[in-house]
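Standup, Tuesday
Yesterday: got the pipeline producing structure tokens again.
Today: sanity-check two examples.
Blockers: none.

Example 1:
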Amino acid sequence: MKTIRRMIYSEVLRAVGVVTLAFLLLFFGFDLIDELQNITDPRLMRGYTLPVALLKVALEVPGHLYELLPIAVLIGTIYVMARLAESSEYTILRTSGLGPRRALLMLLTLGLGFVALTFVVGDYAAPAANHAAQMLKARFLGDITTGHTGAWLKERQDNMAYSINVGALNAQGDMSNVRIFGFDARTGRLLVTLRAPSARFAPDDGWDLQQPERKRFPAETDVSANAGANADSNASASRPDPRVIIDRPANLHWPTSLSQGMVAAAVLDPDGMQTLELFQYVRHLQTNGQNAQRYQIAFWRKVFYPLSCLVMLVLALPFAYLHFRAGNIAGYVFLGVLAGISFFLLNNLSGFIGNLRSWEPWLAAAAPGILYSILSLGAFTWLVLRQ
């Protein structure tokens, strides 16, 4: 059985590697064509040179690998299973003791390796490469922003509720056009505003605001306390304070739990974040009473997507029990391609539908995998019983 396992594993790994390489080269070409519009004369202030465009496209490869790996596993495994069935090799393997249950367990064991690879690529390589690509783009084409209004975040600190606006992220990962509005958490009264053209993430949690302008609005009780001994306290308490205390320090450290990953989540695509960063950001949104549906779905997709490699292997195994005519293998491989594309489209579509219809986040993320698992196990059981 070790010889059979070694043969099937080597064939599947070789086929999956070839399919993955072909897909990555195809997407590399598409991305490079898309980036050609940004290639300009080096003497101009904005735009790429060709080496920079090639570097940016290369940094997008891990993200494509993460998205395409389950589809490549499906197509590569279908090709191997169909070829073994066409040449009657799989029939010989069955007579040698490779029963349906053992074959399924053998492929699922191999699938655990693909699951681990998908998780590592999607949680470490792809987010780091995507962040580097975005920073490279910001360096040559301008800051990263979600639009003219920037990104809005919220945070509670003691008795204060803060609304924070970050205009953009620059090539160094620093923030620009930062505005912070501090309200009394109980009464909702505006107490302080901070505006800074730029801000950096401090190593010890917090932001270092560069050349900020701070405006403080004293509470009415403070006015009555400072009005003087001869003033009528009741009249003073009823009058709003016309004064605004303004100061402009060179630098100001603002303590906050909003990390660079959380700010990037509000500005960039959540699919490019790590699983732990998504979890922390979801907790932050829920703590501050914000809608976290979109990020919850993205989190559960990160959790379930590597497991889709197992689903793809189960979906490919029934092809080993089909009877092929000579030269008919290409049609079944094409069916595998269509199945992989349909899974990819349904996986993306379920996230959008779940967000619009307010489905349970885990259900919206897991629905495609559950559906395809049922279909593949049903087809496998029917073929085995029919045999």
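Example 2:
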Amino acid sequence: MSWFECVPNFSEGRDAAKLDRIVGAGRDVSGVTVLDVERNADHNRAVVSLAGEGDALLEAVFRMVRSATQEIDLTHHTGEHPRMGATDVVPFVPLGTSTMADAVRLAERLAERIGRELSVPVFLYAAAARRPERADLAKVREGQFEGLREAIGRDPARAPDFGPDHIHPTAGAVAVGARPVLIAYNVYLTTPDVTIAKKIAKTVRARDGGLPEVKALGFDIAERHRAQVSMNLTDYRVTPVHRAFEAVRREAQRYGVGVEESEVVGLVPEDALFDAAEYFLQLHAFDRAAVLERKVRAATSEAAGESLASFTARIAARTPTPGGGSAAAAAGAMAAALGEMVLAYSVDTARPDPGLTTVANALAEGRARFLQLVTEDATSYEAVRTARRARKAQPGPAAEAAYTTALQGAADVPLGTARLAVHLAGQLSSVRERTKAALASDATTALALFRAAAEGALANVEINLADLRTAGVPTQPLEDEVARLRASG
């Protein structure tokens, strides 16, 4: 199944009963989970996070949009946050094995249905945009409800992608799109002066030369008697939360004010918070695998036996691990398993061939070792990242030695994968003529997977060899072994 997160934003943050009706309209759809509901009275806006399989999620979100269209009248709506619709924006975020292209198709289907059934004009934005300028949500929403009401139907540049060429009288218009994970992050200043917040927002946002992948606005939060710098971090790996916070704090100091507190609106990836913890606590050699909850999850997953779908979803995710080295080891495990199957059918249990039995046992042991190497590869890569950060933060002989050791480990693990793959491929090849002809395709697939495992692992070794050479470590013995293994494969 294709799984997605969807984060519809509704122009209602004050009437809890009304918002409950909107969210409740989609809550009962089977296969969809409402993960979070955040509302803000000053912004007069709510952000809802849902997750589910594509078709079910589309149905749940459509029901919420339909309810919001009936419940919210923008002609009587006021709030700090820009808005052009009762349902203002609906982004789909691909999860697991889902792709951005899948999310775009889902956005297009929802947009067409909203336009056709609800008579609300729909603009496709972000990755789903059909016009380059509409990739930026701010451009789509320019003029807000009131300005769009005057422009749509008159200005060809403001023609919607779906629905009528006129504004819905009370529900406005909606932007539907697809995007990666976004962090909505607000910083409250120790002043009610919104002009300062707006100056800071202009300084830190990308479009005015500030931090990349950051959108920012300044708001007056009357309820708290505070000014707020409201940011969207569209790629937290480019500009992490702590960097955005520090930029706002430094700019605030220029105007003689401070930061009172900050908040995350909606959901946030745990790695984004680990980034901030490492920065502020100066954890220069911190291993995230040592986090208790991660250890428990890993142990639970291992005990339950992680599914192939789950493992490939983790590979597909926009995270550095598991990566090519782990995939190579997994290919080796599948190769060994196929070889075991071929020999299981080929060995005569009444008169077992000692040679076949020996190879079968070697394949079984190899499969177990490959599975260990899947995890070891990811761990060794994380060790390099941790050591690299420590060397940068506190350079010196100790940090350099730790970095070199981590690099050597990162080369040794895939080298072990390649050695084992080449060895077991040779073992299987040596007895292939004595296996059943009906299983020839299975044996061929096993050998092809062994070759893929070896080649992929050796490519990972070579990348680490380049770093070792830069660090001044002699690499000729490793280079010779890589050449030998490649020739053997």
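Quick observation on example 2: The chain has three domains: 3-178, 183-268, 288-488. The first helix runs from residue 16 to 27.
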